Amino acid sequence: MTMKTVFAAFCLIASSAAFAQATPTGVWKTIDDETKQERSIVRITEAGGALSGKIEKLLDPTKQDAKCDKCTDSRKDKPVIGMTIIEGVKKNAADDHWDGGTILDPNNGKTYKVRLTPKDGGKVLEVRGFIGPFYRNQIWQRVE
Q1: How far apart are the C-alpha atoms of 109 and 126, rounded to whole Å?
Q2: d(Cα 133, Cα 28) in Å, to the nearest integer?
Q3: Cα separation of 22 and 34, whole Å?
Q4: Residues in a beta bridge with 104
Q5: Angle at the Cα of 69 (from 68 to 71), degrees rounded to 5?
Q6: pLDDT at 11
Q7: How many whole angstroms separate alpha carbon 88 and alpha carbon 99?
Q8: Is the model's pLDDT at 6 over the cut of 50?
């Protein structure tokens, strides 16, 4: 292998790794927008062009058995750990964000439209939940 071939291969691998990190897929630590406390670990995956996100862990040891008692859909009274809270999110072709799906806040049982925007080279994720003109933003930190 020539040095030129090695360098080209390295650049290809590095650029594909950087691109992969600039998406919402991965494992995230959620940060409450009001209290600034770390709340949970969420894994966002992609299947068939759509993203979904599940809660893998609650960071408050006293909430390990928490159930979504305020949910009004099929998730009512189901364990929060393992719950899918993000559904149907797709890449917005015209912009650098993913939208078109929903996010559930298990604390209040409400479902919001959602927009996910990777920031800081994919190290953080701006999560915007909104109903009409009203919205809340959270900044999640990438774990892996």
Answers
A1: 21
A2: 26
A3: 26
A4: 111
A5: 70
A6: 39
A7: 8
A8: no
Each residue of 42-92: pLDDT tens digit? 999 999 999 999 999 999 999 999 999 999 999 999 999 999 999 999 999
Tell if the pTM clears 0.85, that is, is over it.
Answer: no
- Element containing residue 17 per DSSP (H, E): helix 3-21
Burial class (CB in 10 A: 0-12, 13-18, 19+), 115: buried
**CATH number, domain with residue 67:** 2.40.128.520
Domain membership of residue 84 as a residue range: 3-142
Q: What is the pLDDT of residue 16?
A: 38
Tell me which residue of 114, 120, 106 sits closest to 138, measured CA to CA.
Answer: 114
The count of C-alpha atoms lying within 13 angstroms of the C-alpha of 74, restricted to the half-sphere facing its C-beta, is 3
125 near 139, Cβ under 8 Å? yes
Please state the domain count of the chain: 1
